[in-house]
Amino acid sequence: MPDSPFHIMSKPAGPLCNLDCSYCFYLEKENLYPGTKQWQMPHDVLERYISGYIAAQPGHEVHFAWQGGEPTLLPVAFFREAVELQQRYASGKTIHNALQTNGTLIDDEWGEFLAAHNFLVGISIDGPRELHDSYRVDKGRAPTFDRVMHGITKLKEHRVEFNTLTVVHRRNSAHPLEVYRFLKEIGSGFMQFIPVVERKAAAPGSDGLVLIQPSSRQAAEVTDWSVEPEAYGRFLTGIFDEWVNQDVGRVFVQIFDVALERWMGMQASLCVFRETCGSALALEHNGDLFSCDHYVYPENGLGNIMESGIAELVASPQQKAFGQAKRDSLPRMCLQCEVRFACNGECPKHRFVTTPDDEPGLNYLCAGYKHFFHHIDPYMRFMAAELREGRPPAGIMRYLGSAM
Known about the structure:
Helices cover 37% and strands 15% of the residues. The termini are far apart. The model has no long low-confidence stretch (mean pLDDT 95). It has 404 residues and is of the alpha/beta class. It is globular, with a radius of gyration of 21 Å. The protein is built from 14 helices and 15 strands. The chain has helices at 43-56, 76-89, 108-116, 129-132, 145-157, 176-185, 229-246, 254-263, 310-314, 317-328, 332-335, 340-343, 366-388, 395-403; strands at residues 7-10, 61-66, 94-101, 120-124, 162-168, 190-195, 199-201, 211-212, 220-222, 252-253, 280-283, 288-290, 301-304, 353-354, 360-362. α7 (229-246) packs parallel to α13.
């Protein structure tokens, strides 16, 4: 039994999606399951997952996350069954559900179901129309912005709680305030900004994948949609400067919240900024469990939950080694860095460049993170001090107003 909570991101429809976003790293995972005709998670796998996941959690609250691909390609009936199974196996624990979706298929039936069962919905949207449609297109390369906005309208009509996930890419990274203000306008009170960084091999590997992991020795180049390091840092600081002056306590931005945790000396709630990782896994439609959503590669497969217990796989030596490698593989430059406490080298997936001393393992986004963490330091110190004195961090807005 794992001695601490862990999280599984489940893919009940596998990598299937009705969109064809240029930067999506998951669509090509279909190549890992050649010949598959039925992508919907079978009943026996769903039941084994739900019962095993609940039983393996050491706490009294259990958080389910449904993603893809696109989970709303499945009928609402699939998720009704999931909720019924959760109730059957809850054993007194409180169950929470989150659904990450592109929003294009949300209709009244979905709205009614999601509201009735208190699902938290994450909507993938990359900013206003021209920025969103830069890469988020359907299979016919048609734009998707209007369909996403229609889905958001349906969520609002049914009073479904939603937040937004914005992929920060080569194009929208140059427009931080345009993106931030737009997200506020559509009613997002909690925002995630996820940098997209992918390397593309010259030819597919033996597994059929072109987008490769950092340890691969294949010849590869960073894709032209990937965000550039300095641009990502400027994107974050641009939004932070407006947020810290106007929106603290009113709008919640995940990376700002996690940064404040670190300045408070707390454990980061987001795996990419922890010293070690390994507590956020991914489950494919057929029950295959992988070390991480960003490491769905054959070599990172832990086993299948129909053959081994979830608790056993999560606590396996392979998974422990995967998590500890994040800390143990940091180059000297990171070990000596003044903002290591906040960054911890970020996600190992992005550690494919070398340091000025030619040591491998430096994060591609290092320059951007350094810029961001140095920039926010005085503000974070102030807000952390406010919290230690029992005052809300929003007091910084009054301080900054009086300092002008």
